[in-house]
Amino acid sequence: MKKSVLSVSSVLVLLTGLLAGCGGNNNNSSPSASSSPVASESSAAASESGSTDAKPSGSITVLTQRTDIVDTLQKEFTAEFNKAYPDIRVKWEAVQDYENNIKIRMNTEDYGDVLLIPNNVEPKDFPTFFEPLGDYEADKTKYSQIDAHRFEGKYYGIPMAINTLGIVYNKKVFNDAGVTTVPKTPDEFLAAMQKIKDTTDAIPLYTNYKDDWTLSQWADYLQPAAGDPNYPNIGVLQDPNPWAAGKPYNDIFKLMYEVAKRGLIEEDPTTTDWESSKGMINRGEIGTMVLGSWAITQMQGAGPNPDDIGYMPFPTNAAKLSAPLSADYNWSINVHSKNKEAANAFIHWVVDESDYASKYQGGFSAKFDDGGNLQIPELLKGFQDLGVTMELSTPGPDDLNGVLTQIDNDSEVGIHNPDFKKRLIEAAIGNRDESFEDIMADLDKRWNKSWEKLIPAQYKK
């Protein structure tokens, strides 16, 4: 497969959100933070030398959100891994509603050996739950975006894939509706959705309301809405009122509200079904879905019309079409694991050697090549041709590391929770006696109170 190259050697990203490569129904004693990473130089050298005696062995349980392909991972993918590590027995465990259920399990010591770090874990808590994978400064030029899960010089997660953000759409539905130019602004997008409603039988935008994570990820679209890679980790934290009219958060959720208010979504959002929706968009029964680029391959493979699936930029009034290159869920090691060496070997083989990112997550590996580049897959070439600049969000300064999550938790806004998104849709379709402005004002008031308390003085204008 042809690939284009993006140079990212000098830029890393810090995102508290993620592009959740979701499938299926995706839906504390603490060690010292300075404890040694599980991968020692001696074990690495032994591995490179090919000495089977030095290779780790034993059994590990790997938790995944991919309930739809867990059997394939257990059989085909594990068989590939065992060619490199024949003495490690891998058991894959699919977790329904991963984000919520894994947080519950993390109140115990039983959350697998290898797992995906859920959202909203504050950096200070990383050592409580996860084993460090290495020194951040030593490895920041080896893996992309490990700064998102760093604490006191160590990093605790490696992205299982790098993706970007846009909207999956059915090109035939657009053509049938007479929409010949991909919409790039909110007004253009709403007009296109109205044409689809008026001239076809397709649902213009499918929210997948019932599967909470599909609504939650709208909050990740800060960079596209702002048109600025500096905004997600710097600009938003310097703004005491980021939910006010004209700000990126407000713009994102105004679009969500408007498509619902205008009847451009499914007739009964409470009856949506994630797995069924994949086939529906492939067959032309759905026009668009707001999903990360990881979804492209899933939609292409869900029916007989893979060539009808396209990817467009998230609509924005910003001058620049900027899409983040962002980490999906991050692989990590349970700090309570009884077989950390085997868990570490698994993670590094998956990221460094396997095709997991491209084949199973529709993205690309977080490992830089020798030139400090990430390899952009061919399936995103059309996205680039629309004028989109895919670029890493600018990392924030060290003293703002984790502050977005702290504000979010303290304010109980719930950036990556579904609650206020469902509140918006319910208000839009008339099931709640609230306006869009009422909801945004409530979020902004709570956010501002926590912002005033938690933002360092030097960042307050």
TrEMBL record:
Keywords: Cell membrane, Lipoprotein, Membrane, Palmitate, Signal, Transport. It comes from the Bacteria. One of its GO terms (biological process) is transmembrane transport. Residues 28-58 are annotated as: Disordered. Pfam families: SBP_bac_1 (PF01547). InterPro entries: Bact_solute-bd_prot1, SBP, SBP_1_CS. Residues 1-20 form the signal peptide. Residues 28-52 have a biased composition (Low complexity). Belongs to the bacterial solute-binding protein 1 family. This is Extracellular solute-binding protein. The lineage of its organism: Bacteria, Bacillati, Bacillota, Bacilli, Bacillales.
